[in-house]
Amino acid sequence: MNTSSGSSARLLQSELTFGLVTMFLSVVLSPVMDIFSKLAATTIPPGEVTAARFIFQALFALPMMAMRGKWGVWSWRRSGVHAIRAAVLTLSMVSFVTTLQIMEVADAIAIFFVEPMILTILSSIFLKETIGWRRYTACAVGFFGAMLIIQPSFQEVGFFALLPIVTAFCVAVYVMITRVVSHSEDAWSMQFRTALWGTGISVVLLAIGRTTGSTILDPVIPDLMATLYLLGVGVTAAAAGILTVYAYRAVPASTLAPLQYFEIVSATIFGWLVFDNFPDAIKWLGILIITGSGLYILWRERRFASKPVSDTSETAFTP
């Protein structure tokens, strides 16, 4: 009996260690994808960088889907949900890569981390999750921290400094929908279908860009170095996504969520090493405020385990 309990404890500890390590590797790799995106965006339009990300994500997921044999159940309604998820993810990627063309990586990622605050507000509205005044206050404080970073950037690049908030809003919508459909669908199938839809949507956008001559969407033929950068975007995005899947399979999301804020640290380090960019004191203050607010929201969610008031919201997107 005691031996069995000891084995279970060791197994749980092993799963916890595995989940934390894989999540740590994921948040280290994610800014590397942003570094490659920024390098590629010097000669490649953001829409094309986005398309490359989805294409490589689908190619890397395809062998795993074939080996596992879990292609998921097809239906118009389910496909429509994945199309919406891919659309908001595509918009978030195009917005963020456009930001990276003119902003420092650490600044853009720090502003993006208002996403948990936006998700908290959207969840209270659409998923009917119970949110208290403390978390709403934390959201307001987090947005104030973002303004500290945006304000000097706004003076330099204008309204482009607001694009990370557009990215954060899109990702919050993406996560909210994912929360709903994840109850009834395999994680690998979700990633693969999203990548396929994202590729299709990106191709349509590139065709529009070719017609209109948009600097954001008009595709170009990449040279060798740009091709390597695009490959780097796809490989790191796929690897980070796979690591995240395994991390969340091993450890509860509430345990892993605080680790995501290490992405700001790793983004700062890589941005400094590659581009010699380092946040000033005001931006660091904004980063600390955003991080503190986000961690407080996560702590409150973990403590009170907010859930939808009815099961209907959980099955709203289920066929």
Give a description of the structure.
There is one protein chain. The chain has twelve helices and no strands. With 319 residues, it is mostly helical. Helix 2 crosses helix 9 (224-250), helix 4 crosses helix 7 (163-181) and helix 6 (133-157) packs antiparallel against helix 12. The model is unreliable at 306-319 (pLDDT under 50).
Give the distance, in angstroms, between the N- and C-terminal Cα atoms: 44 Å
Overall outline: globular
* Strand-pairing-aware structural class: mainly alpha
Helix tally? Answer: 12
Rg on CA atoms, Å: 20 Å
Mean pLDDT: 80
User: pLDDT under 50 segments (min length 5)?
Assistant: 306-319
Instruction: Estimate the helix proportion, in percent.
Output: over 70%
| Major β-sheet profile | none
How many β-strand runs?
0
Beta percentage is under 5%
Q: Could you state the order of secondary-structure elements as H and E?
A: HHHHHHHHHHHH
Task: Set out the fold topology.
Layout: H1 2-40, H2 46-68, H3 76-100, H4 105-112, H5 115-126, H6 133-157, H7 163-181, H8 187-212, H9 224-250, H10 253-256, H11 262-275, H12 281-304
Helix pairs in contact: 1-9, 1-11, 2-3, 2-8, 2-9, 3-7, 3-8, 4-6, 4-7, 4-11, 5-6, 5-7, 6-12
